[in-house]
Write a structure and sequence with these properties.
Layout lengths: L2 H5 L10 H7 L7 H4 L20 E10 L2 E11 L4 E5 L6 H8 L7 E6 L2 E2 L7 H5 L2 E4 L11 H11 L5 H14 L15 H13 L5 E5 L7 H16 L3 E5 L3 H7 L2 E6 L2 E6 L1 H6 L4 H10 L1
The protein binds adenosine-5'-diphosphate and magnesium ion.
The site of magnesium ion has 3 residues, from α4.
Amino acid sequence: MTNGASAQPNGPAQPPSTAESGQLSGEGTTHQFHDSVQPARHLQPRDTPDPDAPPIRVVGLRKSFGEHEVLRGIDLTVERGEVVCVIGPSGSGKSTLLRSVNLLERPTAGRVFIEGIDVLDPDVNLDFVRTRIGMVFQQFNLFPHMTALRNTTIAQEKVLRRSAQEAARIGREMLERVGLSDKIDAHPSQLSGGQQQRVAIARSLAMNPDMMLFDEPTSALDPELVGEVLQSMRDLATSGMTMMVVTHEMGFAREVGSRLIFLDEGVVVEQGDPREVLAQPQHPRTQLFLSKVL
Ligand code: ADP
Ligand code: MG
């Protein structure tokens, strides 16, 4: 049930340095959120995930960059096992929403709860909470000089402190899960974009996250490679993983999504059963958007 916690009951004994963890999570830049984390603390009760709480709960979330308010009051709950798809025009705040849930952006106002943990509580160990959330980006961010297997093991060893043997066992298992058993020794340059993205998914799964966030995971791919990545995501959804997926793949949203959210100008304009929203959007802005993309 609590994969991240069972791997490290007391959180990372020595949280990785900012640069290292930034790299490993696929983010090259540092961010103020991480800098506030204090090293080498044991879990407080406030860090303990509540198994009955929804994996993700966002209340009144606002985010501004300077004068520009990008998220303008988002209320959102993702229940265990739900696959919530998020669509909306470019610049509507989709990535900022995911990055706020993934603790890469600090909200200007509002609250974010991950499995009941208030992540804005200054006493919460964010490094621990982060281990519970997997994220896959449009750009795969694999290490080019490492094999597929090594890409899946390095964070397990450095962040979760797993032995090399254990990390390799889990890495192989996850690469098999995304259909890449025959590519474990390949370097990213020897893999197609679809295969690279599947390695990125395997890398994320190897950390035993309790939920997975995807930010346009197929947008950088040639059209013929989109299907294999969506298939891995579909398998993951079938396995019961809680997922939030920003995507332009309306077919995926229709077939796999348990809910579809339409975001525009930083607000949730409409949400509901994907089949219903796509077939009969209620709000004029949703209708206009869908008329352009469907
Ligand atoms: P989407 O993913 O829906 O295309 P984003 O969340 O990436 O939208 O961005 C929403 C708005 O916020 C855009 O206008 C973007 O330029 C702006 N924005 C995003 N990140 C930053 C940042 N770090 N600094 C300043 N503006 C940003
Ligand atoms: Mg985006």
